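yo

u said u wanted the structure for the complex thing, so here. seqs first:
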Amino acid sequence: MASGAVLPRLLGAGVRAAPRGRAAPRGRTLGSAAAAAAPEPERDSDLSARILSEPLKHSDFFNVKELFSVRSLFNARVHLGHKAGCRHRFMEPYIFGSRLGQDIIDLEQTATHLQLALNFTAHVAYRGGIILFVSRARQFSHLIENTARSCGEYAHTRYFKGGLLTNAPLLLGPQVRLPDLIIFLHTLNNVFEPHVAVRDAAKMNIPTVGIVDTNCNPCLITYPVPGNDDSPPAVQLFCRLFQTAVTRAKEKRRQLEALYRLQGAPGPRPANPAASPGAQAGLGLGVAP
Amino acid sequence: MAGSRLETVGSIFTRTRDLIRAGVLKEKPLWFDIYNAFPPLRDPVFRRPRLRYGKAKSPTQDIFYHEDQIRAKFYSAYGSGPKAFDLFNPNFKSTCERFVEKYIELQKLGETDEEKLFVEAGKALLAEGVILRRLEKARTEGSQVSRKSEPMGVESQTALEENPPLKEVPQPQHLEAPGEESKGLSPP
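structre next:
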């Protein structure tokens, strides 16, 4: 979105302050300056349209499937749910069974949901969307903030004030850009009720990705991922997966922009040998099914 | 910018799509095309959680294996076994697990009598050097009642012994329980 790219990100404490600007247009000389100016904006918009539409044609453009396997989910204890008494009615389709009273989550379903969620996250990051990590578990607050910082995105692991999303102009400032994706590592707050941000994100038409345990309500979450949100290995695995997906997507975006810029204007700008093989490899990686 | 805050009506996608179609929302949000290309497996529509009434039960099944019967017999006869459980090791085999493996091997060889299989499996483990100590008293369903009252403390023994009409069957096991507690305390 062009306007989204121009507005500086005001959320958070200055992790990313620089607006995403485009370099000054340079192009082939077509004999006259006026004629050179006219095709430039068309080519730029055509290029940006191609950059945005190209990844949507592949089913797994960022190859997120290779980041995890059912075995790695099992080793991280993602399949362990709460006791049968804590079970939420809407989580029953995702539960494989109950072993001596403890619910076991179906990892085959988790794998499909996780692939969709990571793919969506990567695409949002590719388009320069703002991602907000939300969790109210104090045990993992530090880990989640570090994860967000390392992939250049935002996190909110403290008390969620009432109108933060719904009354943002008042609480955060007049021209604030709200997140384009909210990732919940814990859907419940400290009193085991659904986090306010789940309902608020649905109100503000913000898509959500969430790790839902057996005692959570997955209804309002756009891309729920049934899984354990209490064991440290499981939460660390999910943080690592989201971080890798976001970093990969941003890297791919940089590569493709460089590649298209090279292809579009081969004249004055010297070809960057480091960028093109990497970009070619990246494009090849995305194209291969 | 226009928006719809009705989270209970449809999904974010249906609301945004209809607003765009009506011309109220001028710009497509960033996620719209991505959602269109890769929709989730279930529409994120609000549903009100309803309680189950009467005899309606949840369809979640219990997970039981055939080996569980062998494990149950092992635990009732020998307790946890001599080796402590090391849960950090993902490939850890407890005494019970080894017993079950031996049992299944012998069953595959053609034996059918459960008692014989049990005894033979115990002997096979003994041949490998694992000593199985039988429990002092047989673990049954009734003894679970006395087991729950054990942590109440030694001082309440007299109070328990004064209530013969309440617990008649576990009574002899009751009197043995404090004895076993002291036996358990002395070795370490």
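The longest helix of chain A spans residues 232-264. The beta strands of chain A are 80-83, 95-99, 102-105, 131-134, 154-156, 181-184, 208-212, 223-226.
cya
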